[in-house]
Predict the structure.
Amino acid sequence: MTTAIYGVGAMGGAILDGLTAHGDGEVLAVARTPERATELRERYADRPAVEVVDASTAAARADVHLVVVKPYAVADLLAQVRDSLRPGSVVVSLALGVSLADLAAALPDGVAAVRGMPNTPARVGQGMTVLSPAADVTDEQLQLVRDVLVPTGATLVLPEAQQGAATAMSGSAPAYFYLVVEAMVDAGVAQGLSRSDALALAGQAARGAGAMLVETGAEAALLRAQVTSPGGSTAAALARLEAHGVRHALADAVAACAERAG
Ligand SMILES: NC(=O)C1=CN([C@@H]2O[C@H](COP(=O)(O)OP(=O)(O)OC[C@H]3O[C@@H](n4cnc5c(N)ncnc54)[C@H](OP(=O)(O)O)[C@@H]3O)[C@@H](O)[C@H]2O)C=CC1
Ligand SMILES: O=C(O)[C@@H]1CCC=N1
């Protein structure tokens, strides 16, 4: 099984790290300049599964192609590789807003197309990739993509029409939590904690809360109620958050993200 990653930036690098830390297949990292190739070879020198190649080489060799360049660069990249792609291989575009129709127009017959939206916790095996396969993608091809991504975290298959909402809830969502933690750390410092202690406490609270949500499957409202003792400190904090309109702010943010991403 050979996977190619086109674009080893913030997102592609996170996937590459996730795949090679926990996976066992061959991974081709595509660099577009010799300088970038040298940099990637040095960075991944301790990971024998990683081979740095040019785009045409990757296109000819890989079974699954993960396209993680900026959205505006996808069309040029696919035009560059389309004649080298093997029939039966699968191209997974992870670029914001690039539709299955865009991919169908750019790919040759016999090459399958999947639209996806990952997130950066893929780096530590805790990511989520939302996948929308084209109508002609076989169950085996979709399963192959899901299997490839296992070392980066979970996958969920949704209709393409829900990619915008999924981006708002998943692809972009880590940034919302980082913003909250960033603000909490500043507030903790204002309360006299060291920055490193504040970050350790807020980060572990975020990790614990996330694990509770995922592992218990309970509604967030129930878990929140379990923390909120009558007349206690949590109730005091939550009342302030509600007064500052945190729900409205999140609803507005999610709607703006979904609109931009769809
Ligand atoms: N960041 C995130 O959290 C998420 C990003 N995405 C999607 O991932 C994609 C990449 O975003 P992000 O990682 O943030 O952006 P970056 O700018 O960090 O990474 C893009 C990378 O693509 C490389 N690149 C550009 N053109 C080519 C090419 N022709 N061949 C090989 N490599 C190329 C660039 O290399 P060079 O440095 O040489 O220019 C750069 O390293 C976007 O489409 C985005 O929508 C999706 C979900 C989450
Ligand atoms: O902000 C962006 O456009 C990309 C897509 C989702 C997360 N980052």
About this structure: The domain at 173-261 is CATH 1.10.3730.10 (ProC C-terminal domain-like fold). The longest helix spans residues 195-216. The pocket of NDP (ligand 1) is lined by residues 6-12, 30, 32-33, 36, 55, 68-71, 73, 77, 94-96, 117-120, 171 (CB under 6 Å). The longest strand covers residues 127-133.
